[in-house]
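Hi support team,

I'm filing this because I wasn't sure whether my run with coproporphyrinogen III finished correctly. The job status page said complete, but I'd like someone to confirm that the output block is well-formed before I use it downstream. Pasting the exact inputs I used:
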Amino acid sequence: MSLISTKQNDVKSIIAPSQARFASLFEKGSLEMSPLWMMRQAGRYLPEYHGVKNRANGFLRACKNPKIAAQITLQPLERFELDAAIIFADILLILEPLGFQIDFNDQGPQISSRAPLESLVKSFENNIDYTLEYVGQAIEIVADKIHPNHALIGFCGAPFTVALYALDSKRSDQFSTALTTFYQHPQLVENFIDILTHASMEYLSMQVASGANIVMIFDSWLALAPWAIFNNIALKSTAKLIRTFKARHPHIPVIYYPKDKTSDSLKHLSQLPDIIGVSHNENFGQLQKDHSIIFQGNIDQRLLLTDDSTIEHWVKSQLTDRERPSIINLSHGILKQTPICHVHAFINAVRALEN
Ligand code: CP3
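And here is everything the job wrote out:
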């Protein structure tokens, strides 16, 4: 029986139960095994994703339909023995209830503001009424279908990265339009980022209430922040997000992905997450030597474009270099041209190193 033709109702029976590789993280806050999942594991490299997305009439509508979003979330777990599901959604969805129009086409996200930033910020100052219930509903469906050994990851964007998109509708080179707004209107931008921080905390909290048991904060463009903004605005808002979230959910592990800025983030964040995501530009083994925190990621997604024996060779050399268990993941999202058989080769190479 083909996995793809299996009815959605039967999903529970075809998701391979993963081993309890996350168990010690939940029980003791430490890792005894190395769980594996892949950034963007639900998405365009999977043929079955395209079918479901087209039937939903596009990416945004797929995100907003809880049954479809749940179905897409589960697609990679039907094919591969992964240890986590990450809810199918996007870091930019949060902008919609905050007064932005968002759309996704072949050029990527298209964002426009419904009103000048100043009036948007004023309208939210005393009245943050904001909800993305459809994401919570999708999480509930997924939580009901996956094996308890699977982690279920909720996520949001870091306030700085989301603000870059919000303030740069044309996505200028290196978000320079957004950054000029940071310089020209620092107070306004800070107020906006504060609203994003609060909304993101409520959003993550809602995801946990719906069944997510790990949350991840994506700061994909942190490396674009000039120093003054990096420290005073970007990291400050992320630390506040982690702190306020942790005050409410002390036992939910938080992963923060300060892309390419791991050491500076570890040094300057006033509130650390539980886990740090690391890109392929950084030295994973050295970071593990220097810091006791749990790390995730670091495996170049382009490795999965090569061939089985190359994948095996590099996975082996990279993972045997690691000091202690970590969350095995790609460095950034899996590429859409990745052959499915290479994903199998990657997962097999990782599992072959387990004793
Ligand atoms: O499987 C998963 O990882 C969960 C779903 C997920 C998506 N986006 C779905 C998606 C997650 C965790 C994200 C995070 C996200 N979205 C980030 C942070 C991580 C990163 O990639 O840096 C960012 C910056 C975005 C914003 C965004 N969304 C961009 C720039 C784009 C277009 C370019 C691209 O990479 O595809 C999207 C669209 C998007 N988000 C798709 C998916 C599956 C592709 C939609 C499609 O065309 O089918």
